[in-house]
Amino acid sequence: MPDQHQTSLKEALRSAVWAQSLTPEQMARVEADTFETFVPKGGYVCRKGDMVENWLGIIDGMVKMNNFSPSGKCVTFTGVPAGGWFGEGSILKNEILKYDAMALRDARIARMPAATFMWLLDSSLPFTRFLLMQLNERLGQFIGMVENDRLLNPDTRVARALASMFNSHLYPGLEKLIQISQEELGFLSGASRQRAHQALHLLEKQGLLRVDYGGIRILDLEGLRRYES
């Protein structure tokens, strides 16, 4: 176990953006009902075809949403770092999951039961507003991914994929050092690991980022957002 202080489940819940406007009574139920699980690197947080039983938050680690074709080809939709929450769409539609969520590294997952989630939706107007923003930001993220995939070259896609992870609403806890492999960045940007490596080298030469041991350090976030090769 690391020597540094580990965020507790209670601390993670109380620091969440959506929790800031809850009443003490609402927060007490959230803390009583929400539980934590550990998912090792490469393990499944949830699987395609499962019924959604919980709203999911990342306490520590990073999770990727992806799908596999029958031939084994993988497409990665997004990566969710610590502080992010996901799965609200499937809960609202009461449908089975249409993607897998896998841990990119050892992850601690907060699981709020769907019944508690729906109770908050019915009883807290600020929580409802948060969810509207969450869904809107998620929609914008995926529209951007389609645009990037169809219109931009690999260097620009890598830059935009990195920049898209810095969304203060979806991923409020992300630091400037992203612990992500070049292979996973390739999945996120629709490029091979080798092509992602070339793009990172180019972006590093232009002073936008630095490839560190164990991750990628962002030096110029706005530059990545505006980048077009």
Detailed description of the structure:
The chain has nine helices and eleven strands. 43% of the residues lie in helices and 23% in strands. It has helices at residues 9-15, 24-33, 88-93, 114-123, 125-151, 154-164, 182-189, 193-205, 221-226, and strands spanning 35-39, 44-46, 54-60, 62-68, 74-81, 85-86, 100-103, 107-113, 177-178, 209-212, 215-218. By secondary structure, it is of the alpha+beta class. The strands form three sheets. A four-stranded antiparallel sheet has the order 1-8-3-6. A four-stranded antiparallel sheet has the order 2-7-4-5. Strands 9-11-10 form a three-stranded antiparallel sheet.
Brief synopsis:
The chain is of the alpha+beta class. Helices cover 43% and strands 23% of the residues.
